[in-house]
Design a protein that fits this description.
Elements (H helix, E strand, L loop, with lengths): L1 H21 L3 H4 L17 H12 L18 H9 L2 H6 L17 H12 L4 E3 L2 E3 L2 H4 L7
Antiparallel strand pairs: 1-2
The protein binds heme C.
Length: about 150
């Protein structure tokens, strides 16, 4: 009798183990998409549509106003173009090149936003006019970059 009981408990435990092992809870199958897993639009990157909104959300709070940090005011396009053209913008957000990592003392940008900034810089011709950087109107106004 005692042996049968132990056998029964054994079988029941095995069944529970097998059952749990095969169970997929909804949370396992549908993970909440993190910033790096949602689709990343790299085919229609524009300054006004893609890049400025990133700066507005993550940078302009410190880099604007009468005394912008690092002396960089990103509401002024020529100052964004300046750090884009000389490589500082990308080095700061990719935490490379010994620059102070940006955003300052916060989590880095997700890989999608870094990639979008990279694509914009790669595909923009920055022209130096006097001490300022300018780009053509065509580049500024909803320029679509084909991949
Ligand atoms: C919380 C405030 C804050 C935020 C947000 C912030 N910055 Fe900065 N940034 C600073 C400060 C402070 C400095 C000056 C650091 C130094 O020279 O010590 C700086 C300097 C820089 C520099 C010059 C780096 C150097 O080593 O000279 C770049 C480029 C820059 N920031 C880009 C960005 C970008 C791009 C973002 C948004 C993704 C951003 N920052 C967000 C505070 C901030």
């Amino acid at each position: 009798m005692r042996r049968n009981f132990i056998l029964l408990v054994g079988i029941a435990s095995a069944l529970i183990l097998i059952y749990n092992g095969c169970t997929h809870k909804p949370m396992d199958i549908i993970p909440f998409p993190g910033p790096d897993t949602i689709s990343c639009d790299t085919t229609s990157v524009t300054y006004p549509g893609t890049i400025y909104p990133i700066l507005e959300q993550y940078c302009i709070e410190c880099h604007s106003g009468p005394a912008p940090t690092g002396n960089l005011d990103y509401t002024d396009y020529s100052q964004v173009a300046y750090v884009a053209a000389n490589g500082m913008l990308l080095s700061a957000i990719k935490h490379e090149g010994g620059l102070v990592p940006m955003p300052f003392e916060r989590d880095p940008l997700d890989s999608c936003r870094i990639r979008q900034i990279e694509i914009w810089i790669r595909d923009t011709t920055f022209v130096r006019i006097g001490q300022e950087f300018e780009i053509t109107l065509e580049q500024l106004n909803n320029r679509t970059i084909e991949q």
